[in-house]
Amino acid sequence: EVQLVQSGAEVKKPGESLKISCQGSGFSFTSYWVGWVRQMPGKGLEWMGIIYPGDSDTRYSPSFQGQVTISADKSISTAHLQWSSLKASDTAMYYCARHKGFGDGYAPFDLWGRGTLVTVSS
Amino acid sequence: ENVLTQSPGTLSLSPGERATLSCRASQGVSSSYLAWYQQKPGQAPRLLIYGASSRATGIPDRFSGSGSGTDFTLTISRLEPEDFAVYYCQQYGSSPFTFGPGTKVDIK
Q1: Chain A residues touching B45 at Cβ < 8 A
Q2: Is the N or the C terminus of chain A less surrounded, counting Cβ atoms within 10 Å?
Q3: Tens digit of each residue's pLDDT (9 = 90 or more) over B2-21
């Protein structure tokens, strides 16, 4: 089955670090761009950035550049989103999603994970 | 950054009615790289339309997209009960690939 499986919900304190994951299966993970989308509680979708696992080429939204790191480990078909120091305002659902189209860097997301809920609270 | 606006914010309609949703971009969208997504509560978004007018796999033909340049439209010809949801447009012609704020279609 073609799918993206995300890691489980996290509860963290401000200032802590965190790395969440998104594992692809049923398709050639290294040949599709994979991205991350934030959805704060009750709000809309925000495009954070994308990575091409084949060569780790990465593009960030200016809104998230320097705030998070997107990486990929192609040996285990997994993309990661990480924070070095969380803030309460990072509380949100984070979705990973795959670009439609083999190797296409300009494409919509046609396959989505179920999301990882990150809660940051003291 | 290409900023997308969507109107109306909320659309209250009855099943069987026609829904027309608008998405406007602050800059022209390259190659009509405009997509529409549907999101229901507690679920991930689902791709409906890409390339402004192409339906994604498995999407019923009551969903159609049109437009070019800066103005795009999603039309649902006859609303089914399962169509009441939030709809987002996204441009993927220039990075960052921004989303619009969404239009909620709810039951009148």
Answers
A1: 37, 45, 95, 97, 109, 112
A2: N
A3: 999 999 999 999 999 999 99
How many Cβ contacts (< 8 angstroms) between chains A and B? 66
pLDDT digits (tens, 9 = 90+) for B33-79: 999 999 999 999 999 999 999 999 999 999 999 999 999 999 999 99
Q: Which amino acid is at A97?
A: A
**Which of A47, A97, A106 minimises the CB distance to B33?**
A106
Cβ neighbours of residue A27 closer than 8 Å, sequence gap 6 or more: A2, A98
Q: What is residue B54's predicted lDDT score, i.e. its pLDDT?
A: 97
Token pair 């997994």: residue:
A78
Our measurement of the distance from residue A122's CA atom to the centroid of its chain's CA atoms, rounded to an integer in Å, reads: 24
Share of chain A above pLDDT 70, in %: 100
Kindly report, residue by residue over A75-105, the tens digit of the pLDDT: 999 999 999 999 999 999 999 999 998 888 8
**Residues in a beta bridge with B68:** B71
Q: What are residue B6's phi and psi, to 5 degrees?
A: -120, 145
Identify whether the C-beta of residue B100 lies closer than 8 Å to the C-beta of residue B90: yes
